[in-house]
Design goal:
By secondary structure, the chain is mostly helical. It has helices spanning about 1-30, 35-65, 75-85, 90-110, 120-125, 130-155, 155-165, 180-200, 205-220, 230, 240-245, 265-270, 290-295, 295-310.
Length: about 325
Amino acid sequence: MIAWIVDGWEGIRTLVFAGAVQPALYAAGWMDLADDFYDWLDFALFGALSMAVSWAVCRPLEAWRPVEPVTDRKAIRTDVVYTAIARLGLLPLLSFLLLAQASAGFHGWLADHDIVPPTLETLIPALREAPLLAFALYVVVLDFGEYWRHRFQHAFGWWWALHSVHHAQRQMTFWTDDRNHILDDVLAALWMAGIATLIGVPPGQFPLLVLLLRVAESLSHANVRLDFGRVGERLIVSPRFHRLHHGLLSAGEAGKNYAVLLPLWDWIFGTADFRRDRYPPTGDPTGSERLATGGWLAQQAEGLKRLWRAMRGA
């Protein structure tokens, strides 16, 4: 069955590439980049799939038991723009084109010096015979890395200046997951790709890992009154657990509940808040109105201004 899924996916990618991407590359005179764009197409298609899955899972939940009524549809539409930019492969394409040569040079340097970086499968050879267990360990390691990236976003003033774009949303929905400054998204992509490279995530599995984490993050941002119970709350991040992180009193360094998928990290490092009866209003009280309710360009510009002030020590 897995082979059937892989073959079907490859067929779809080939069809889209031949019917749309390849003619555009030919018209632009970029046929020398055809192989790179073919590889990138995986991210674009998985991004479209993740948007569809997120909508199918989260929209009925938001209609079922919303935390708060929708009063600002413009803010939600802006978040949809963020999601399209992040998930349809525009940012992965930018990162791929900028880093492809650097990555090739780095691996060439390693090969020239006979350096073979350790991976999870070289450290634990038994994983080669247990692909599902290997995939689960990749998820755990990447999630651990995402926890610390999130902590750093709140700990460093310059990084918080960018991340505050995400926290400024007062009308939080499952679309809010990708409401990030573009520089913050680039840093996040580099962070995750770097960890995935270090632990040896197979290229074919990386998009699936990204899909899993993105759908989980969409659910955690959903406008739904939902928790997973006293035990479940300690196993998987719920909308209630993450909403506490977005609460008005949790901005900046005062934050709690940083985990993306596994609350285990918050539990271990003392940043967990498991109070199940709280669904606070969201937003960043230190942010400007433009950051909260402006359009995509306005919010990006405001994020740059906050970054400049932070770097100047203001």
